[in-house]
Amino acid sequence: MGKYVWNESSLSWQERAPGARAKTLGFHEKLAMITMQLDAGVDVPLHTHEAEELGLVTKGKSEVQIGGENYVLGPGDYFFIPSNTLHAIRIVEDMEFIGAMSPPRPEYRPQEG
């Protein structure tokens, strides 16, 4: 379509870990946008990273811990994870979310080819 416009149908899912798939919707110098699918039962242990994350849950249910606070998230819930803040997630029901991160995490750079 062009340098500044593209369509999601041209993008592919990448297996991130067992039960976790991501599609990078946009990846630029200071910002990336992804969508993720996570299967029920997936547990992501406490971790940190430089990127700030902002997301919208579109499907499913999860229990998250962000900065020592616990939440249950479902469709329509937004979340924010500040840079270098401990966080973890447990997927209760198959979940999908759309998220943005800044700076972009290199592991989400689209694969060539």
Overview of the structural elements:
A hairpin with a 2-residue loop joins strand 5 and strand 6 (69-73). The chain is 0% helix and 57% strand. Strands 1, 2, 3, 4, 5, 6, 7 and 8 form an eight-stranded antiparallel sheet that branches. The protein has no helices and eight strands. The protein is an all-beta fold and 113 residues long. The model has no long low-confidence stretch (mean pLDDT 92). The chain has a single domain (8-105), classed as Jelly Rolls.
CATH classification class: Mainly Beta
Q: Structural class, from helix and strand content?
A: mainly beta
Q: Would you identify the CATH architecture?
A: Sandwich
Q: Could you name the ranges where pLDDT drops below 50 across 5 or more consecutive residues? A: none
Helix tally equals 0
What coarse outline follows from CA principal-axis ratios? Answer: globular
**Distance between the first and last residues' Cα:** 17 Å
How many whole angstroms does the radius of gyration measure? 14 Å
Summarize the structure.
With 113 residues, the chain is mostly beta strands. Helix content is 0%, strand content 57%. The chain has no helices and eight strands.
Topology of helices and strands:
Blueprint lengths: L13 E4 L2 E8 L4 E7 L4 E5 L4 E15 L2 E5 L4 E4 L5 E16 L11
Antiparallel strand pairs: 1-2, 2-3, 3-8, 4-8, 5-6, 5-7, 5-8
